[in-house]
Amino acid sequence: MSSMLAHNLSRFKLVTFDVTNTLLKFSKAPGVQYTETANSHGITSIEPKTVSIAFRKNFKILAKEYPNFGYNSQINWHEWWRLLVIQTLNDASSSKLDQKTVNKVAYTLIEQYQTPLCWEKYHKADELLRKVKETGKCVGIISNFDSRLKTLLNNMKFNQIDFILPSYEIGVMKPNTKIFEKALKESGILISPSEALHIGNEIELDCKGALDAGWSGILIRNCERDSIKENLVKCPMYDTLEILLNDLETKELNL
C-alpha cells in the first residue's frame, strides 16, 4: 500500500463509487447488444443505429413517466425494462414484430445485463478499490440502478465492497442527498459527511450530489467533458481511474 495514497485519503472514513461509466462500461453499445440478442431470437428487421435512437427516446419517456425504474409506481424495475425493450424494438423495426418473440428478447436482455456478457471493467478499477480498502476505509457503492446491481457486481468479481446502494432499493436517486445520508448509516460506523468521499462520472448526479450532502467528490470523466457544467461544480477532476490512482500514489492532493 502506498503511504502517499493513505495520506491523501487520511481524512476520509468512507469512500463510495458510482458504477456505470465509473467502474464499469458497456462491452457493446446497447443498440448493438439489443440488435444481436434480437437477431438470435429470429428478429432481423432492425439495425443498431435505429435501435440506439429508439432506445434513447424510450428511455427518456419511461424515466419521466416512471422515475427510478418504476419505484413506488404500478410497475416494478423488471417491468420497466421489459417495456423499454419492447417499445424500443417495435419502434426500431422496419416491419411488424411478433410480440411473443419481442417479449422473449426482453427477458433475455434483462438477464444478460446482470452478467459479464454486457459489461467490462475500466482499467485499474479493481486495483483502486483494493488499495482504498487496504487503507482501512469503508468502501461502498451508490448508483442509480435497479435491484440487479448486487448480482452484477458479484458476477463481475468486485470483492472489495462493504455495501451496495442501488437507487431503486433506497427509493431516491442521485443527486438526492438522502441516498448519501443512507450511505453514512449503511457504513455501520460513526461518520460525519466531511469524512466521506464519492467518486463518479456525472457532474450533477455524483459531484454536486456529494457536495450538497456535505461530502467531498471526485469526477472521473472517462473521456467525456462538459466544460460548462464542470465550471459550475468545484471538485477534483480526472480523465480516468488510472490517472486518479497514479496521482493518489505519487502526489500530495488537496481532496
From TrEMBL:
Its recorded name reads: CSON009387 protein
Q: Report the domain of life of the source organism.
A: Eukaryota
The UniProt entry, under Pfam families, shows: Hydrolase (PF00702)
Give an example GO cellular component term for this record: nucleus
Its gene?
A: CSON009387
